[in-house]
Amino acid sequence: MSDVKNFINGEYRVSSGGKVFDNINPCTGALIGTVQEATYEDVDAAVQAARDALSGPWGKMSDAERGEILHAIADGIDRRFDEFLAAECADTGKPFNIASHIDVPRGAANFRVFADAVKNVATEAFQMATPDGNGAFNMAVRKPKGVIAVISPWNLPLLLMTWKVGPALACGNTVVVKPSEETPTTTSLLGEVMNEAGVPPGVFNVVNGFGPESAGAFLTEHAEVDAITFTGETRTGEIIVRAAAKGLRDVSMECGGKNPALVFADCDMDKAIEGTLRSVFANCGQVCLGTERVYVERPIFDEFVSRLAEEAGKFTLGPPEDKNTDMGPLVSHEHQKKVLSYYDLAVAEGANVVLGGGVPDMAEEFSGGAWVQPTIWTGLADDARVIKEEIFGPCCHIRPFDTEEEAIRLANDTAYGLAAAIWTENTSRALRVSTQINCGVAWVNSWFLRDLRTAFGGAKESGMGREGGEHSLEFYTELQNICIKI
Ligand code: NAD
């Protein structure tokens, strides 16, 4: 049995209020262990430690020195790869073959990429005339913003948390992380790596707990937090933006999506099927960038639907360690309840269920797990709730379209604007369509292909601000102009 502790000022601490909550294995429903729930006093201690560390050795280091430490953190994750892999898969139920290729390597890469990015970004300088004829120089310098609160979700716990901690530390900030209550283990484990890599105490802190009236709210409402970076649901994001308004603290919001895929008749069908299979079902559909609405040009609609259903119907559902597993369970029973409620709603709203729609038959040992079937619908009206609301499960609705204009209109008919996938072999069309879709990330003939130097974020209700490459440095630093009169 594990006991996941808070990590404050370089050391592991139990809850000062003696409070713990359960960590459940989503494959079986069995107890993995307990998690120490941070009280307000614990969160306050973490924030104070982070504040103090800003003026300690960390605050005096050069970018290059901090960069070396960030590389040591990445090396530390690589060295303990198997531990991170086992912990991530136990908390989430996701297959080893996904987490070993995506979650854990990206967890390490997030430190290396931003350590190097900081070294290579210039700041602006302007020379100006003055009435006395001598002139002046303006020179910008970047300074850390201070104490950053990192609030992360459960779908890609290590990857999404390090996506924020990496650049925050590279820029010289200190952090207090509140991982999702569903998946706390790898964030806590990272504390050991930080100590081994020589990160000074107080630079990286972890507090465990829930959102409202718990560690999440204590942290985001704390006056000594200078900025908040959040990944999670849009409605939670709204609450956090309200908390950040007090004291005008800066926010970065990476929120939900209801992402479209547009499949044109001139696509490479094999590529479109393979890509859409991944974009709908990867990580059991629990990817913010995942596709939940598929629009297919009418001449290839029937073939596309039957091929996608045939391929998804072959998925093997199973536990992480089984090499044959294509899809794991959902993260929790609570989330399973939510996804199944949409499976029922789809039928009530008049969907034709092409595949799945319920709970799969699993072996006895997995009967307590949060399993759902991969599911495909057709036939829903454009204003159905299943088309409008983010489900975050292994499911999609497929609808035919007749013209490019119609496809673009349907893709944009959503409150969200995170990502889109466009499948066509016509480059002019690819450019024409992708630039007309109101979203942060548009993929053409691919999905989830990420260059960490590029801007990442959402339009509309999918978020505020951009992270990635130089854009992360914008958020994690305060740009100061120094004007020097000659
Ligand atoms: P969530 O909003 O329920 O929780 C996210 C985090 O916020 C958790 O750590 C939670 O404890 C915390 N939290 C909840 N209420 C809070 C409050 N009042 N104050 C402070 N903290 C609070 O999201 P989730 O269910 O963990 O994650 C799934 C959601 O995340 C989906 O909507 C998905 O689209 C989104 N997501 C977005 C991106 C992106 O990059 N845009 C990436 C991954 C996931």
Automatic annotation (TrEMBL):
Q: Which InterPro entries match?
A: Ald_DH/histidinol_DH, Ald_DH_C, Ald_DH_CS_CYS, Ald_DH_CS_GLU, Ald_DH_N, Aldehyde_DH_dom, OHmuconic_semiald_DH
**Annotated ranges, domain Aldehyde dehydrogenase:** 17-481
Q: Which residues form the active site?
A: E254
The protein's matches in CDD domains, at most eight in alphabetical order, are given as: ALDH_F8_HMSADH (cd07093)
Pfam name, any one: Aldedh
Q: Which GO terms describe its molecular function?
A: aldehyde dehydrogenase [NAD(P)+] activity
Q: Which UniProt keywords apply?
A: NAD, Oxidoreductase
Which residues belong to the signal peptide in this entry?
none
Q: What is this protein called?
A: 2-hydroxymuconic semialdehyde dehydrogenase
Which species is this UniProt entry from?
Pseudohalioglobus lutimaris
Q: What is the lineage of its organism?
A: Bacteria, Pseudomonadati, Pseudomonadota, Gammaproteobacteria, Cellvibrionales
